[in-house]
Amino acid sequence: MTTTATDALTQALVRMAEAGDRPRCGEPGAHELWLSEDTEDRAQAARWCAGCSVLAECAAAAGELKASFGVWAGRDYGERASRRTVAEQ
Ligand code: SF4
């Protein structure tokens, strides 16, 4: 059976949870920055990805899923398309 990058990220997150830890994007009160409409919020989220123990798995999953919005592994993929104005699309 082939393990996908997304499966590998899920497994890494489960291991973190079993150890009583979680990535910063999963912290209550902070996680909304990763999907914010505000560019500065997403820039802050991207900085907070630095040092994440699952950063490599997150980056691989973002590539596999062809991430098109939000912050993944310190990279800002932009705002969710449904939130953009018609003029921006
Ligand atoms: S690297 Fe991925 S899992 Fe870690 S904080 Fe950033 S977005 Fe979250």
UniProtKB/TrEMBL annotation:
Domain 4Fe-4S Wbl-type: 24-82
Protein name as catalogued: Transcription factor WhiB
